[in-house]
Each structure stands twice: as C-alpha cells, then as structure tokens.
Amino acid sequence: MEYTSSVHMIMRSLSDCGSSVANGSEEDMEIRKGPWTEEEDSALLNHITTYGLKRSGKSCRLRWLNYLRPNVRRGNITLEEQLLILDLHSRWGNRWSKIAEQLPGRTDNEIKNYWRTRVVKQAKQLKCDVNSKQFRDALRYVWMPRLMEQIQAQGRSTMCVSQAREIVNPVTSVSMASSKSCSSFSGCEQFQASSSVSDSCVSYYSLMGSGSGGGSSERAEKGATSSSTPFEPENGFAGADFWTDENIWFLQQQLADDDHL
DNA sequence: AATTATCACAACCGCAACTAT
DNA sequence: TATAGTTGCGGTTGTGATAAT
C-alpha cells in the first residue's frame, strides 16, 4: 500500500471520528492575533481582578492547551497510539507537535512525556542510545510488529476479519522474520520489498478507528476533580502497556542474537 | 510508620518562527 | 523592511503519587 494513501486513510479516519476533537469549538471561535485592544486588556484586567490569578500568560496558555482545552484526551496511551507514536517518531523524530496532530486529543507534551518516560527508559535499560541505529531498527523490526501482534491478540478490533488479514499479514510475517532469520534488523530485504511496517501501522491504525482508543481518565480513577473529557473510548485498550518485562526480555534476546551474528 | 527511591505527568524556560503594524 | 508583540516548539525541571526499604 502506498504511503500516501495510508496517510490519507488515517487522516480520513481521524476526521471521521475525531474532527471535533482536533478542531472543535476552537476553530469556530474567531482567534485574534496581533496587539491587544483596549477592550481585551480591560477584559483581562477584570478577570485578573476578579479571580486574582497570579499566573503568567504563558503559564495560562500552557494550562489551557494541555489540560483545560475542550476534548483534551487523558489517560493511558493505548497500544494503537503507542504504535503510531513509534512509527511517526521514526519518520519525524522529536517533532512532538506534528506527531500529536495525528493523535486526536493528545498533546505534544503528553507524547513527549511518553517517549521520554517509556521509550528512552527502555533504551537505557537495554544499554542502547535511543538514537542509535540498533535501537531504532529494534523498534521498527521487532517491537512494532510485536506491538501489532498484541493489538491483534486483544481481539477487540472493530475492523472486519478480511480487512484485518489484508493489513496485518505482511506485518506478522515481518515479526516472524525478525525473530529468526534476519541477521541484521536494518539489512533485511523482506522489510523493504513489500509494504513497510510503517505503512502497515498507519493503515492498520486507521482501520482500527484511531479515535476509539484511550483509557478512562487516570485522574478520574484517582479521584481527582478534573472534568472528564467527552472523548471516551468505546473499544480501546485502556491501561494497556506494551513495555512489559516479557517484551523487554524478548527485545534483549533479539539484540543479543543480533550481536552474535 | 517513617523514610527514601522511583516513576509519570505537569509545568517552566528559552528560543525561534510568525504576524501585524 | 524593521520592529515589537505573540505564538509555538522542544528540552528540562519540578511535583505528587506510589513502591520499596
């Protein structure tokens, strides 16, 4: 499948299920730019006077963007989201805001935190540089296919079986190849010949219905008072975490095999 | 039960890019 | 075009919750 068509698929999917999340009422509002008017200044002064907010504008803005903005989605990063983050990061690097655009309701900060607290941590655990080719290849050829297998194994997909076969099969074969026959993660022709993992990830994700993932609000679970978002998952994998000991062990084995060959 | 370590998430900071005048 | 103000981005640090001792 062509990469561009995959992107279109995912875009369409996102717009179908998450347009209100991505754009929402913010776009409906007229957003003014440029210097402040006297009226705006006085409105702001009124608010500050009334509520006594001792916060910088920058802090307020950040709070709004990452927390208070309507439709900000909170809670565990789903397996599908993890997969998409890994895939997009492999393409775009630390372009967090760009990556966040593809995950409706998720903020760049959240994705950045996910990367730093999970992925970078695992890289350290494996004694790899997170930017090293070895680690990137391991992500691409071992973890991502394995992640997809786990998504598949969850068996809670909304896609029809034929769609699933069509999309997942190439990736499954990648996983098999990577675990045994591939002497180098980066050198395996199989990965380049057919549809790439990336393409499959994107199309798989789009078929899964990208907006359907996500867990219930973590803060809500902890009894915090923040209001829940209207963007609640219907069939996502709440609480799912790919970075289990088992998977870390699996990856360590792959890296060890790779070293020996 | 108290203390310490670790983790995940939220917030801050500095800088660059953008926009209006 | 130059400049000031505004916004966006990414790296870093702070904080609260939880686990471990």
TrEMBL record:
It is found in: Nucleus. GO terms for molecular function: DNA-binding transcription factor activity; sequence-specific DNA binding. PROSITE patterns: HTH_MYB, MYB_LIKE. Residues 210-236 are annotated as: Disordered. GO terms for cellular component: nucleus. Keywords: DNA-binding, Nucleus, Repeat, Transcription, Transcription regulation. SMART domains: SANT. Residues 28-68, 69-123 form the HTH myb-type domain. Residues 28-119 form the Myb-like domain. Pfam families: Myb_DNA-binding. This is Uncharacterized protein. The lineage of its organism: Eukaryota, Viridiplantae, Streptophyta, Embryophyta, Tracheophyta.
